[in-house]
Design a protein that fits this description.
The protein has 208 residues and is α+β, with helices and mostly antiparallel strands. Helices cover 34% and strands 23% of the residues. Helix 1 (3-31) crosses helix 3 (153-184). Bound molecules: zinc ion (ZN).
Length: 208
């Protein structure tokens, strides 16, 4: 195989793999059920990952939903306030075989709104998409309806390679199947030109 063709082939399947990776992650983020598993962690570590203006001081509590989504509630700086009543972080990531894209949403719980995060990386889906997804999910499943947009680089690379190989395998099997069917019908394996009895294809020069 000529090097230029090899490079084009690898790039084509890498692109197909990347598209499949993102579509699979988005579809599972929007349509897979996401059961609440209950509180799993309480920590007193300083939450240094919170963006500027949303620093938490001492305590935050994690809750896990399904295998992929976390909700983290932080205590206010003012300890006289009720605990777990300041900022609520929702973070989740999706993808197969590894998680490849995620989202982060931070709500100011004191504002008592679930509609408008104060900080987010993701796109909240329109209501019709959310109600479609909720119809497919088991009753009582919490649902956030957010398209994840934060790349998880290791997962993106691994998933792109994985789905690129799957696309290559499927394309290869299709070409072989089509070639075998053409040969059975007395046609050229490569281009489908009628070659019954001839040694080489007069159209493309292929010699079976
Ligand atoms: Zn041919």
């Amino acid at each position: 195989m000529r090097p230029a063709r090899l490079v084009t082939g690898v790039l084509t399947y890498a692109a197909a793999g990347a598209v499949l990776t993102v579509l699979i992650a988005w579809a599972s983020a929007l349509w897979l059920p996401d059961p609440k598993l209950g509180p799993v962690a309480t920590s007193r570590a300083k939450a240094s990952w919170v963006p500027a203006g949303h620093e938490l001081e001492n305590t935050f509590r994690g809750e896990r939903f399904g295998a992929t989504r976390w909700q983290i509630q932080g205590a206010p700086l003012d300890t006289a306030r009720p605990v777990f009543d300041s900022f609520v972080t929702n973070a989740g990531s999706w993808g197969l075989p590894m998680r490849s894209v995620g989202y982060v949403k931070i709500y100011d719980a004191r504002a008592r709104t679930t509609r408008s995060p104060t900080w987010m990386r993701g796109v909240i889906m329109p209501v019709w998409v959310q109600s479609w997804a909720m119809k497919l999910s088991p009753k009582g499943t919490p649902y956030h309806g957010t398209l994840p947009l934060v790349p998880q680089w290791t997962g993106l690379v691994v998933d792109t390679a994985f789905w690129g190989l799957v696309a290559f395998g499927v394309a290869h099997m299709f070409v072989r199947w089509r070639g075998a069917r053409r040969v059975r019908r007395g046609r050229c394996r490569v281009c489908g030109y009628y070659v019954s009895g001839l040694k080489a294809c007069p159209e493309c020069g292929d010699m079976p």
